[in-house]
Design goal:
7-stranded mixed sheet, alpha/beta, globular, 333 residues, Rossmann fold
Length: 333
Amino acid sequence: MARTLTVAGLLLAMACQKPAHTGEHPVRIGFSMDTLKEERWTRDKDLVEQRAREVGALLDIQVANGSDSVQTKQCENMLAKGVDVLIVAPHNGEVAASIVEAAHRKGVPVIAYDRMIRDCDVDLHVAHQQNKIGEMQAAYALKHVPKGNYVLIGGAPTDYNALILREGQMRILKPAIDRGDVRIISQQFAREWKPEEALRITEDALIRTGKRIDAIVASNDGTAGGAISALEAANLAGKVLVTGLDAQKDAVQRIVRGTQTMTIYTPIRPLAFGAVDAAMRLARKQHVDAPDRINNGKRDVPSILYEAIVVDRSNVDQTVIKDGYQRREEIYQ
């Protein structure tokens, strides 16, 4: 069974780790990001910057704004400037394989950050338990709505994480579907994780069922928000179970108001810090302890996977607010 790292254990290890001061030149890290449009990605950026400063690394961050060609060009530029290691949060997990190949031609290792890079020899994968998160969303939905009409809203089909989440969701839902307890009304993917795509999918499902929807398994908080907009227009907000992921501020606000049922909290600090620490070791050709393996279509990629936490109205204060991830006064306006 794959071993995962607890947040508490990782933070303790990080607290004990001191920046290395040697005669070597500072490690140069390139961080290629798909987007900063969602709240969580600004947290990733800030925390990667913080950890890079703490360990004395030189950091170059480039944001592709959802463009494969821009991301590829930005990575080529960082490689030309002589980065020692690349951390890549890919827009398209398949297209980004060319980034890995280009980096390896220069002897530069690559870490797939949060999203897997497909069909290549990527050196390391640092992420949350995406497969398990999909299972957690579906299990929560089944526990609270064991029978009824379900709508599944996935993320961007170009994002491998969206496919992994759907696999996890279906693994839990399939027995209930086979029994006839659950009927899947729609199981589409929202282009670029856009809320307006989720709104359209939900509106279509409401029309086709005569507003008879019992649960919406939305794969992240953005798509949950789009679905809830459609439910509000149909006077069904708070009457239909809606899942999410990322514990964004607006999503947690919806949870305490009762229009979104739950989200999955994936602490960003251990992910960002872990990626930078692993990048330092890879750049110095040191061993990285990666206890898990995730197949990317070509190989079983050494992976470091972090735990996720279910958040609903019962534990908002004990999770995202206690950790300082969200501020209480902003959640309970």
